[in-house]
Amino acid sequence: MFLSLFHSLRALKVPVSLTEWLTLLEGLSKGLHNESLDDFYYLSRSVLVKDVVYYDAFDQAFCYCFKDAPIPQDLATRDKIMEWLQSPLAPLQLSPEELAKLEALSLEDLLKELEKILKEQDEAHHGGSKWIGTGGRSPFGFNGSHPMGISFSPERGSGTAALQAFARRYRNLRSDLTLDVRQIGVALKRLRDLRDTGTEEGLDLGATIDKTCKNAGEIDLVFARERENNVRVLLVMDSGGSMDPFRTLSERLFSAANKLNHFKDFRAFYFHNCIYDKLYTNQETDEFVPTGEILHEYAKKYRLIVVGDAAMAPYEMFHYSGTPDYSSASTKGIDWLRQVAEAFPQRAWMNPLPEGSWSGFETVPAVSALFPMFPLTLEGLTRAVRHLL
Amino acid sequence: MQDHPFHQFSGTDGYVASRALQDVVNVAIALERPLLLKGEPGTGKTLLAHHIAQALGMKMILWNVKSTTKARDGLYTYDTVQRLNDARFGDGDVRDIRHYIKLGPLGRAFASPERLVLLIDEVDKGDIEFPNDLLFELDEMRFHVLETDEWVSAVHRPVVIVTSNSEKELPDAFLRRCVFHYIDFPDEAQMRAIIEVHFPGLSTDLMQSACKIFYGLRDVPGLRKRPSTSELLDWIRALLASGATLSQEDTPSLKNVPFLGALVKMEEDSATLTRHASRPIDARTAGHRFFR
Questions:
Q1: How far apart are CA A310 and CA A326, in angstroms?
Q2: Residue B161: its pLDDT value, please?
Q3: How far apart are CA A306 and CA A350, in angstroms?
Q4: Block means of pLDDT (10 residues each) for chain B, length 292 residues?
Q5: Interface test with A, best of B100, B169, B285 (most A CBs within 10 A)
Q6: Measured between alpha carbons, how far is A119 from B241 in angstroms, rounded to an integer?
Q7: Chain B residues with CB-CB distance to A43 below 8 A
Q8: Which residues does A356 contact at the CB level (< 8 Å), separation at least 6?
Q9: What distance in Å separates the CA atoms of residue B177 and residue B135, rounded to the nearest whole number?
Q10: For residue A271, which of A296, A241, A229 has the smallest C-alpha distance?
């Protein structure tokens, strides 16, 4: 009778394994639930759920199984759609004539059509003209070229979408990604430069034996300092609108680097669209540090990792004051990028866009001329780490 | 399989445990699995282990994990240096290697003739692979001493409490073997009970305004380190010792709070507070809207 709880949890993407299920059965056979629903709730939650981010999902599954609450359909569907929209294609370049050919539907028609498609679609489709996907002519999804579409992008994107389908956002994205964060962490661990700077002394066995032998058996102890990682890392991340589909990915990289406890020093900053005279310390608020100060403080000593799609509007890069907000700035975006590149001899740019699509953007080649660019994948990260060493 | 009497843990005189927490502790004891505790700093994760030991009348062994801690350190260390020194100066019984095998916290917990509580504190401070290296030992409750070719096995499976501040993700294999509980930050009613335990007979006025300021402070956005229970208790202790009074206003301003340093520890946070106090709420969010 409890199996439905197990299956609902799995359906809601809570990582529950057989081991945990058997532990729960063991607990039940010992009578730890005290024949009360409350105690059973705590028992099953503590045994089955291993992270606080799943508590909400567990509650929903629990209510569904034991209190006849409906399974939250919208949540399940939403996650499915967001999954289809992962690793999006770049927008198609369409001529105005082609655009005009695309039928401009009314909002009601779109919603009706969406409902139909939600019933039919069961996997990701990119670059097409009907299903929910990215980079195509379909009215659904994002980065699409349809002039009147429904966007599933968590934030307002290029502006033509008639409706923001999902206003709900997960701010705290360092959650359901344990395994991936670990994978990235393991990849980043290779970024090290061991130096004999440790303070703790350990016995150097080999040297001790050598010295003792030379002393004709008279024991002579030799100590050596332990080795420590000497790498300092500066992570600068784009948090502009076009990066939204990749927010999860970049947050993963951030969590991994931040939690690794492996670098001598680790700093992170954010920028919007392009690096100008300010780098932000916090995504939520507008606290910033002048870029010049950062260059002065971190240049040469730190290894720089930039995360961004480098796909800006050309005017943001090649004209003075990329956005109205930067009216005081008197340097072009590209010049700021050049200054940053010159200040950090060991630098890498991680681009979440698929490597094949880079040439489709006007600004990407300009950026990759300044920064060695790698795709933001596990493989690309490994390459970047090798390059940074 | 149930050799031990079912220990009923229900908090102690010095520790207010919520119903969920009591249940989880009892589950972990009965299932003989490590109990993994997470939660904001200062919610009493470490303290819980002390009080479980106290409530169950067991001894406690503390293993404080640091960034340099290796899993092996917990089992045993072989003191080569001591042995070599002894060999050099002719002290001690150098022939018997056992004299130089020193059991670590985990080893001592296994070897103890009575059941006890083992606290592995801040497991996430260790290396990323640290918890994985302990899987076998925590499962089987025994380990092999290479130098003597002997096994150290647990006479009684210790009650293992593991705390983590979520600095690092813990490996799945490790999580699968644990009983997990997230200690919620206490709400105001619970907080009053906790204060009552530590300061019996505290005046209602002081309790009221202290809680108000405390929770108000926790709501300030952008704080790097929000004040926790233990800091609140320290702060009340300071207030009592100095005889300072708190204003009874409905919306106490954070400027004139005595001993604010007991609650807010980071210089950055003091700056945030000053800015928060002098800045209208709307202006703060206006800037970043633009980019969204």
A1: 19
A2: 92
A3: 6
A4: 53 78 87 87 84 88 86 85 80 79 89 89 82 85 86 87 79 86 83 85 83 82 76 86 70 67 76 66 41 36
A5: B169
A6: 67
A7: 23, 27
A8: none
A9: 8
A10: A241
Does residue B173 belong to the interface with chain A, where contact is any CB pair within 8 Å? no
With CB atoms and an 8 Å threshold, state whether A286 touches B287: yes
Residue type, A341: A
Amino acid found at B131 = P
For the stretch A285-335, pLDDT in tens is 677 788 888 888 887 788 888 888 877 777 666 665 444 444 444 567 788
- Provide CB contacts within 8 A for B262, sequence distance 6+: B231, B234, B235, B238
Contact B63, B120 (CB under 8 A): yes
Q: In 3-state terms, what secondary structure has residue A280?
A: strand
End-to-end CA distance of chain B: 59
**Which residues are B63's β-sheet partners?**
B120
Q: Do B81 and A221 touch (CB under 8 A)?
A: yes
Q: For chain A, report the end-to-end CA distance as a whole number of angstroms.
A: 56
- Best mutation target among A21, A42, A289 (most B Cβ atoms within 10 Å) is A42
* Residue in A353, A376, A377 with CA at minimum distance from that of residue A365: A353
Nearest Cα residue to B276 out of B225, B216, B214: B216
Chain mean pLDDT for chain A: 68
Do residues B65 and B130 lie in contact, with contact meaning Cβ atoms separated by under 8 Å?
yes
Specify the amino acid at residue A196.
D
Give the CA angle between residues A180, A182, A183 to the nearest 5°: 65
As a whole number of angstroms, the distance between CA B230 and CA A204 comes to 43
Q: How far is the alpha carbon of B239 from chain A, nearest alpha carbon, in Å?
A: 33
Question: How confident is the model over A169-192, as a mean pLDDT?
Answer: 50
Which domains, and CATH codes, for chain B?
19-183 (3.40.50.300), 188-282 (no CATH)
Quote the tokens at residue B170.
Answer: 């813990």
CA A93: distance to chain centroid?
27
In angstroms and rounded to an integer, the radius of gyration of the C-alpha atoms of chain B is 24
Q: What is the pLDDT of residue B290?
A: 37
Chain-chain contact of B221 with A19 (C-beta, under 8 angstroms): no
d(CA B4, CA A200): 43
Distance (Å, whole) CA B270 – CA A135? 47
- Comparison of pLDDT for A149 and A354, the residue scoring more: A354
